[in-house]
């Protein structure tokens, strides 16, 4: 069960030893055993040996993770996993950024570092730097101390804490989310106590933005309703409004007093530029208005497993910001007391050091560029095959995902005949693609589209 | 760069969203540390801190942790590694709690998930309880860690309390506890501290645990254990889990929250485990899937680094035995400080009975000091503790124990 990575440094030898240690463990193998192993209740079992949770049924599997499960089972040598929401290199491997390894090594080598509890709101440096990253170092909101930022567990955790706060303190419980959106959005928001409605977003006919529908739906939302906005690289469609369209959205939202809640999971990953990708958010802050922003460092720093994120409230005044922060603590403390130290320390180390920050922007741009290149290659390959249809959305859409426009039958066909795995809505992860596999994918799309309509 | 003046927009907008948001009360335990930090006096002592300190009053990173950290550096960002790390953490955690050779562990008849330390484990369980036993309530001991009340409240599970601490004896109010357990409706959910009760430091004896377990069987109650101090009570990991083992022997299908914050000094890493015992593996799979769903809507996956640290330490015989040694050193220091403090107070000729200082176990001592005395300790002697009189023995050192004893003697001798 070794990863197919070849390294040669002491770290790598430790790494392979670690993998061996985890993989050879008989217990983890036995977890995949069939479920035939039941135990007979012991003679001293409580009441009739039954559990108070006997009524609990198996939860449905997460559809996106199910794709990877199916992919893993497939023995075909030409199989391709385009369901994965994590970045892969040209060799199809997960990537640890050099600057992240460096930062981590610095932390490990620093013997004076301790592992004490972070404050409830998290690492202060990290919070300040995160706010600067998204709102801009010269943001008037930051300079006026009107921003309350708390460290949370990646984007999911930031959304949940923000939504819980809103459910408690905001006068409107309805949140509008785009159709479609990330599968976990409605679950997180609903559990937090908000009531979810949809606004039109994706236009299947153009494979682009249904701008008219968006404006109509937000226009008919009740005053004060919350609106979830993907800051850039909309997941799953890859369709983003232009800056002009963002401006119109902002004007409409301000005129109706709608509260913007940004989900920023791909800053720097979409265009390759951190500032460009933050423009929509900054647009909303520039007019002095209030908003929320959830940030994730999962993709843009490759810190998926460390759960690093931040939630910011841009408020009217500094006094309000400090009261909001005090109430956020009351949401967080009974949830997990305080956030994890490791990932945030790495991010703070990188963000506060000019050289490391610069190095990060270069690595980030390289990731974004590779994805953009994959888009171009796939588009060109379909053009050269004369595949029927307009495939320009592949290069117009932005970020990790492309909403191909393939229907469920076509997707099933591609999985069965070409061993290409994607979610049934036709979403492919460009991050999972590499140059060698482009022809295979193009062939598959071509055949799917010509044989199945 | 042109800047929009905030005012122009604000006057045209709706009322500010958060004008109604009041300033939240500060967390009682954290404000102790804040007061301590604000005090520049060289004699200041922080007895609020729930984290271990060495004899110089400094935070401690265990050597086994440093070794493990060097080993795993660079590894955890690979998703396959972090997934396996989580599995391994759960596997090692339940061995610690239930015993390596327990049937539960051997047969895998438990649902185990990594959680965000003890808080996260309790919260996951509370949410699960609300979802699948919506009519149930949770019974919390009086007193208990203050955040327990917040957790079950935010999970919207109604709370009741059961008697635990006996103010008069500064010990366990066993008969009242048993009465409350008996009088609760059948099938009630109870939160129990298996060792080193926080904040009182008072644990039932083995015999008392057996009686409690028996009564729980009669009443068909659900026992939920919050184990945050395994190893800190007696210094012996197995002994500290005894209450849980007793319940297991009696066939209870318990729930258990485990924290590695104190046990391994991994406070900021947020490593914990929630396990729920089930009738069989099928049920365990179902329960686990539901727990994962709850976690997914809260924070997605748990953080990888801490889990990898713990699983590396517990999975390597050399590191594990180093950890056991280091854990014992920590608990020995605390016991030594208890003895020293009591000793000093007795030698000062204090009229009060300070036996409870050494009778109580774990990190905390429920001193019995009243709010006026606590205030004086803060104002006159620069000694800080929460106003329930809970002293963290971890904040006591050979360097300050005399000063502390003197101060306590001063504020108690007139009362």
UniProtKB/TrEMBL annotation, chain A:
One GO biological-process annotation of the entry reads: amino acid metabolic process
Domain spans labelled Aminotransferase class I/classII large:
79-445
Which keywords belong to this entry?
A: Aminotransferase, Pyridoxal phosphate, Transferase
Q: Which family does it belong to?
A: Belongs to the class-I pyridoxal-phosphate-dependent aminotransferase family.
Annotated Gene Ontology cellular components are:
mitochondrion
The record's section on NCBIfam families has: PRK09257.1
Q: Which reaction does it catalyse?
A: L-aspartate + 2-oxoglutarate = oxaloacetate + L-glutamate
Q: Which PROSITE patterns match?
A: AA_TRANSFER_CLASS_1
> What does this protein need as cofactor?
pyridoxal 5'-phosphate
Q: Which proteins does it associate with, and in what oligomeric form?
A: Homodimer.
Other facts:
In eukaryotes there are cytoplasmic, mitochondrial and chloroplastic isozymes.
| EC number(s) from the headed UniProt entry | 2.6.1.1
- The record's top EC class is transferase
Q: Read off the InterPro entries from this record.
A: Aminotransferase_I/II_large, Asp_trans, NHTrfase_class1_PyrdxlP-BS, PyrdxlP-dep_Trfase, PyrdxlP-dep_Trfase_major, PyrdxlP-dep_Trfase_small
List where the protein spans the membrane: none
Name one molecular function that GO assigns to this entry: L-aspartate:2-oxoglutarate aminotransferase activity
Q: What is this protein called?
A: Aspartate aminotransferase
UniProtKB/TrEMBL annotation, chain B:
Gene Ontology MF terms: L-aspartate:2-oxoglutarate aminotransferase activity; pyridoxal phosphate binding
One GO term describing the cellular component: mitochondrion
All copies of domain Aminotransferase class I/classII large, residue ranges: 44-408
CDD domains, sorted = AAT_like
- Keyword Ribonucleoprotein listed? The answer is no
Keyword terms, alphabetized = Aminotransferase, Pyridoxal phosphate, Transferase
* Reactions catalysed according to its record: L-aspartate + 2-oxoglutarate = oxaloacetate + L-glutamate
* Enzyme Commission no: 2.6.1.1
**What InterPro entries would the database entry show?**
Aminotransferase_I/II_large, Asp_trans, NHTrfase_class1_PyrdxlP-BS, PyrdxlP-dep_Trfase, PyrdxlP-dep_Trfase_major, PyrdxlP-dep_Trfase_small
Give the protein's cofactors.
Answer: pyridoxal 5'-phosphate
* GO BP, sorted A to Z: amino acid metabolic process
Instruction: Please give the subunit comment from the record.
Output: Homodimer.
Q: Which NCBIfam families match?
A: PRK09257.1
State the remark under miscellaneous. In eukaryotes there are cytoplasmic, mitochondrial and chloroplastic isozymes.
The record's comment on protein family reads:
Belongs to the class-I pyridoxal-phosphate-dependent aminotransferase family.
The protein's name in its UniProt record: Aspartate aminotransferase
């Amino acid at each position: 069960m070794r990863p197919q990575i070849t390294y040669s440094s002491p770290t790598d030898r430790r790494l392979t030893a670690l993998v061996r240690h985890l993989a050879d463990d008989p217990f983890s193998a036995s977890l995949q055993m069939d479920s035939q192993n039941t135990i007979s209740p012991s003679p001293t079992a409580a009441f009739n040996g039954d559990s108070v949770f006997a009524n609990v049924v198996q939860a449905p599997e997460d559809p996106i993770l199910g794709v990877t499960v199916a992919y893993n089972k497939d023995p075909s040598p030409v199989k391709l996993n385009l369901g994965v929401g994590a970045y892969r290199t040209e060799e199809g491997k997960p990537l640890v950024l050099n600057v992240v390894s460096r930062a981590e090594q610095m932390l490990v080598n620093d013997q004076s570092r301790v592992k004490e509890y972070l404050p409830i709101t998290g690492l202060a440096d990290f919070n300040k730097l995160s706010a600067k990253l998204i709102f801009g170092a010269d943001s008037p909101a930051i300079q006026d101390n009107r921003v309350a930022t708390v460290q949370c567990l990646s984007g999911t955790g930031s959304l949940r804490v923000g939504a819980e706060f809103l459910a408690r303190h905001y006068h409107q419980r309805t949140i509008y989310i785009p159709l479609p959106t990330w599968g976990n959005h409605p679950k997180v928001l609903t559990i937090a106590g908000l009531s979810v409605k949809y606004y039109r977003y994706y236009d299947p006919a153009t494979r682009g933005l249904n701008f008219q529908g968006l404006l109509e739906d937000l226009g008919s939302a009740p005053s004060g309703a919350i609106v979830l906005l993907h800051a850039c690289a909309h997941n799953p469609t890859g369709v983003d409004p232009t800056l002009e369209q963002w401006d119109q959205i902002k004007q409409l939202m301000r005129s109706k007093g709608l509260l913007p809640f940004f989900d920023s999971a791909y800053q720097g990953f979409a265009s390759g530029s951190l500032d460009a990708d933050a423009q929509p958010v900054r647009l909303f802050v520039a007019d002095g208005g209030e908003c929320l922003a959830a940030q994730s460092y999962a993709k843009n720093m490759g810190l998926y497993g460390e759960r690093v994120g931040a939630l910011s409230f841009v408020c009217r005044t500094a006094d309000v910001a400090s009261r909001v922060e005090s109430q956020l603590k009351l949401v967080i403390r009974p949830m997990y007391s305080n956030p994890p130290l490791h990932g945030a320390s790495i991010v703070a180390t990188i963000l506060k050091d000019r050289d490391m920050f610069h190095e990060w922007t270069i690595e980030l741009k390289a990731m974004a560029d590779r994805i953009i290149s994959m888009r171009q290659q796939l588009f060109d390959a379909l053009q050269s095959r004369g595949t029927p249809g307009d495939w320009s959305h592949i290069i117009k859409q932005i970020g990790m995902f492309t909403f191909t426009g393939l229907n469920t039958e076509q997707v099933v066909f591609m999985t069965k005949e070409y061993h290409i795995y994607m979610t049934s809505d036709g979403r492919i992860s460009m991050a999972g693609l590499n140059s060698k596999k482009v022809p295979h994918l193009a062939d598959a799309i071509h055949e799917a589209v010509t044989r199945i309509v | 760069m042109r800047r929009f003046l905030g005012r122009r927009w604000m006057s045209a907008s709706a009322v500010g969203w958060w004008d109604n948001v009041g300033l939240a009360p500060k967390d009682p335990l954290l404000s102790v540390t804040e007061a301590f930090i604000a005090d520049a006096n060289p004699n200041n002592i922080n007895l609020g801190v729930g984290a271990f300190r060495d004899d110089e009053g400094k935070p401690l990173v265990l050597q086994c942790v440093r070794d493990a950290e060097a080993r795993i550096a660079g590894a955890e960002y690979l998703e396959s590694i972090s997934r396996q790390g989580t599995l391994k953490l759960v596997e090692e955690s339940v061995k610690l709690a239930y015993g390596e050779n327990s049937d539960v562990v051997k047969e895998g008849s438990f649902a185990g998930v990594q959680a965000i330390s003890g808080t996260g484990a309790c919260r996951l369980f509370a949410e699960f309880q609300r979802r699948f036993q919506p009519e149930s309530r949770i019974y919390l001991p009086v007193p208990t860690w203050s955040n327990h009340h917040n957790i079950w409240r935010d999970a919207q599970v109604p709370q009741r309390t059961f008697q635990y601490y006996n103010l008069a004896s500064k010990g366990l109010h066993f008969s009242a506890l048993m009465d409350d357990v008996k009088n609760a409706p059948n099938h009630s959910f109870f939160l129990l501290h298996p060792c080193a009760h926080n904040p009182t430091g008072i644990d039932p004896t083995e015999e008392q645990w057996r009686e409690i377990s028996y009564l729980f069987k009669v009443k068909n109650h659900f026992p939920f254990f919050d184990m945050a101090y395994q190893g800190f009570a007696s210094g012996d990991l197995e002994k500290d889990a005894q209450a849980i083992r007793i319940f297991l022997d009696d066939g209870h299908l318990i729930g258990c929250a485990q924290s590695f914050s104190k046990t391994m000094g991994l406070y900021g890493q947020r490593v914990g485990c929630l396990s729920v015992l089930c009738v069989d593996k099928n049920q365990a799979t179902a329960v686990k899937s539901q727990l994962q769903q709850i976690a997914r809507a809260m924070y997605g996956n748990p953080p990888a680094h801490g889990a990898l640290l713990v699983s590396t330490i517990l999975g390597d015989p050399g590191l594990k035995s180093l950890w056991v040694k280091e854990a014992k050193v920590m608990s020995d220091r605390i016991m030594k400080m208890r003895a020293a403090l009591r000793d000093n107070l007795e030698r000062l000729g204090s009229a009060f009975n300070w036996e409870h200082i050494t009778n109580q176990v774990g990190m905390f001592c429920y001193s019995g000091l009243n709010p006026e005395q606590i205030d004086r300790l803060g104002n006159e002697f620069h000694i800080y503790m929460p106003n329930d009189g809970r002293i963290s023995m971890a904040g006591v050192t050979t360097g300050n124990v005399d000063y502390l004893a003197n101060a306590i003697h001063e504020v108690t001798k007139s009362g």
